[in-house]
Amino acid sequence: MYNLKKTRNVNIYEQVGLFLYMLSQPSFVRNCEERFQHSGETISRHFHNVLEAVCMFAKDIIKLVDPSFRDTPIEILKDARYRPYFRDCIGAIDGTHIRVCVPSHLQGVYIGRKGYTTTNVMAVCDFSMCFTFVWAVWEGSAHDTKIFMEALRKPALHFPHPPRGKYYLVDSGYPTFMGFLGPYKKTRYHLPQFRTGPRIRGRVEVFNYYHFSLRSTIERAFGLCKARWKILGNMPPFALKTQNQIIVACMAIHNFIQRNDKSDGEFDSLDEDNEDIDSDEDESEVGPSTTTWEEPDAQSTIQMERFRESLKNMFPTRI
Do 98 and 19 share a domain, yes or no? Predict the structure, then answer.
């Protein structure tokens, strides 16, 4: 199992068990010592061994189920709110900030908008709330657009580029060009703005509302992952590389649960279409590549804006 081996005192099942326990507990080391009756050294050794194995596993599970994107996602097909408009949409892209521990000489660049040190994690998500790409290496002060463009440009990252005619949903913090559909700017977009303002009317506002509603799948995925794995809110002072590996590992196990266990009742309220979950309302790579990347130009932006305009004109004038 991804190079995991039993030892004289700890079999593979217990190694995985203590690893999962440490991910899910806020005071992981002390609680784990008491729960499994092993020394801190034994627990630490097995934690790192399983972490390496799960990062290998991540390459097999943080990926596209259908790399060709032949079929419209079932979640869109069976939802009358999205089926007429977003049949060629293949997923959503966003970033989330996760608190990390860094040496004092790095704290300046890792301090993000929240005022503490974070890493800015970029991810792609499908509509079953599974991550299909994760890049967890950037400092908290890095802008979402910079990370996004770097991910698209680096062949070694194997970003799952959309084929011609397909597209991802992105928020207003990302550029709009062929393959990446953002909302209309200078118009209400996030759910709290719609809830506290006047009735939604006009096709631009209606488009933004449905765009946000569908794109919020990735925000719910971030929220669900953070709710499951408390370590993401209380990262231990490991080496920064190890902390980034923990983030990827949590998202890999999240995918495994999403695809194999629908009976996780404790998290049903997070797993449902609940737009209240916002991992970042303001705002180690894994995943396959499907299409050759071409640098966008002005024409690419114009074409996507025209597509958005034609899509907007399909919507009703009010909700």
Answer: no
d(CA 37, CA 115): 38
C-alpha angle 176-210-185 in degrees, rounded to nearest 5: 40
Q: 51-88: per-residue pLDDT in tens? A: 999 999 999 999 998 888 988 999 999 999 999 999 99
Which segments of the chain does DSSP mark as H helices, in order? 12-24, 28-36, 40-61, 74-77, 107-110, 144-153, 191-196, 203-228, 240-260, 268-271, 298-312
What does pTM read for this prediction? Answer: 0.87
- Average predicted confidence (pLDDT) for the chain: 87
The answer to whether residue 3 sits within a structural domain is: no
Q: How many domains does the chain have?
A: 2
> Residue 1 domain-assigned?
no
CB count within 10 Å of CB 34 equals 10
Distance CA 106, CA 111 (A): 9
207 and 224 co-located in one domain? yes
Angle between helices 240-260 and 12-24 (to 10 degrees): 100
DSSP assignment of 177-232, as one string?
BTTEEPPPTTS--SHHHHHHSS--BSHHHHHHHHHHHHHHHHHHHHHHHHHH-GGG
User: What does the pLDDT average to over 25-36?
Assistant: 68
